[in-house]
Amino acid sequence: AAIQALGTASWGQAIDLIGRAGDHPPVVAAAIIQARSLIADGQPDTALVVLNAVDMSSARDLERALAGMTQAAALYAQSRSDELRVVLDAIVSDESTPMSVMGIADAWLALLKSSDDGPLLPVARTLRALAVRHRSAGLPYFAGISLNNAMCVELARGSYSDAVGLGRDALDQFSHLPVRTSELASMHSTL
Fold first, then answer.
1. Which of 73, 91, 92, 152 is 20 to 30 A from residue 63's alpha carbon, by CA?
2. Distances (CA, A) of 181 to 54, 55, 86, 106, 148
3. Which long-range contacts (CB under 8 A, 24 or more apart) does 29-37 make?
4. Tell me: the pLDDT tens digits for 45-91?
């Protein structure tokens, strides 16, 4: 449920349910969704508090991986790149991380490494492949993010026609979401 809510940007309905739980500590999936919503609302500090408060002892592999990715998103929003790399490295090195999340963390690490003079073409290819997998899994938000990131890599490579095509594909994926995400405004300004 958490990956569906995150991958389709459908956290609004989930947040309504979480709000009705009262003072009960949130289950892992609910905490992940709540934290992602807080990040989207520009509150990464509060998102980290929510994630740190949840009991992860009974979390499944997917929940642990998604909690790590949500933590990474909050750290990214705070420009805490060293901590971000540590979290992503931990996700990638954990053999229990599901492939769907492993691909996202691996692509994110490749993007971070490319900023240190790494080659960009493999990053663009990885992001395109990730977008295809997310699209076929019915996760338009994740597909749109992957396409948006691939667009940025192609811009950096000077491949402008590819970047425009990827940007349009990303806009198409974002158009399937039940909410308007901050990435949509970024896409319009980039195109």
1. 152
2. 26, 29, 27, 23, 13
3. 29/1, 29/2, 29/63, 29/66, 31/67, 32/2, 32/6, 32/63, 32/66, 32/67, 32/70, 33/2, 33/5, 33/6, 35/70, 35/71, 35/74, 36/6, 36/11, 36/70, 36/73, 37/11, 37/12
4. 999 999 999 888 888 898 899 999 999 999 999 989 899 999 999 99
Closest residue by Cα to residue 108 from 62, 69, 158, 135: 69
Maximal CA-CA distance, the chain = 52
62: tokens are 């997917």
Contact present, 35 and 50 (Cβ < 8 Å): yes
The residue to which tokens 């997917």 are assigned: 62
Closest among 31, 63, 35 to 47, alpha carbons compared: 35
